Amino acid sequence: MIRSIAATAATAALLASTGASAQPASASLRVIDKIAGPDGGWDYASFDPARRRVYVAHGAAVMMIEVDSGKVTPAFAAGDHLHAVVPVPGSNLLVTTNSGDSTARIIDADTGKLIASIPTPKDPDSAIWDPHSAKVAVIGGDSGTITLIDPKAGKAVARMTVGGSLEFAVPDGKGRLFVNAEDKNEVVVVDLTAMKVTAHYPMPGCLRPTGLAYVVGHRLISACQSVAKILDADTGKEIASLPIGVGPDAVIYDAAHALAYIPSGRAGQLAVIALAGPKNNTVVETVATAVGARTGTVDPKTGRVYLPSAEYGAPIAGQRQAMTPGTFKVLVLGK
């Protein structure tokens, strides 16, 4: 199932887990650039801080943007119905998820060449680096599973079944993984060492949670269909419920600027949430983007936000809207 990505860099997870805070940047984003790419569907985008790159899981290939030079490589690495691209810190490795052949692939980040292909349960969707275990957690959306991949060993080392329809996951940097359960409107808490579920956090008023982020102050931000739920990560208690646009598929956390961004694909807008302190949970701006822009990533150095998008034809009853050829692009939002 194509859903979010919120992409959360490992450094952001570590910052959040220590409780460190940063001063919020002033809002006032706008679209400052549009980077064209090949036609086709997409899912998550992620940022590689070591190489200063944006990766877009774009159908049958990873699209790569070198943000400082502007160079675009439309097909950096091959895939099969790609969903996520995870840079492995301290290495030259990427891990991708491919629902077309149900694999997690290990890719050479320097060349884009395939190193290993690891079978996973059906529908490997989102994936995230866990700094505590030094593994990549791969979420099986339709299979309701979590698979831990050791990228350096090139193999799966653990697997568990949670059940249900799972979406995005985030670690706390201390051995816990939080996963949005779309069909149950809750966050599931998993102990990655024991590989078992330890808690369920229900979210009343939340419909079909997709994107998720773990942020400063031990908080979780879950993107529901028209609201963002902010929870205490230790107890699951609701801290705030904020209105956002319809059709979100990611929560993009910018730890360096103490902000979170939620792109809503149906509304064509981006909610900017300030997170300077534990009680500071405020939508400070809503930025016009484009219909279809539902996932993305952020450059922690510049604060620029990257949102894949495309134009669509008129809706036809009972059918998914067709993408207009030649319109795929990555929106760049900055000041």
How would you describe the overall organization of this protein?
The chain is an all-beta fold. Helix content is 3%, strand content 48%. It is built from 1 helix and 28 strands. The chain has one helix at residues 10-18, and strands at 30-36, 45-48, 53-58, 61-66, 72-78, 82-87, 93-98, 103-108, 114-119, 124-130, 135-140, 145-150, 155-161, 166-171, 176-181, 186-191, 196-202, 212-215, 219-223, 227-232, 238-243, 252-254, 259-264, 269-274, 282-288, 297-298, 305-309, 329-334. The strands form 7 sheets. The protein has a 4-stranded antiparallel sheet with strand order 1-28-27-26, with no helix packed on it. It has a 4-stranded antiparallel sheet with strand order 2-3-4-5, with no helix packed on it. It has a 4-stranded antiparallel sheet with strand order 6-7-8-9, with no helix packed on it. A hairpin with a 4-residue loop joins strand 16 and strand 17. The longest helix is centred in the first third of the chain and has 9 residues, at 10-18. The model is unreliable at 1-27 (pLDDT under 50).
Task: Provide key terms for this protein.
335 residues; mainly beta; 4-stranded antiparallel β-sheet; 28 strands; 3% helix
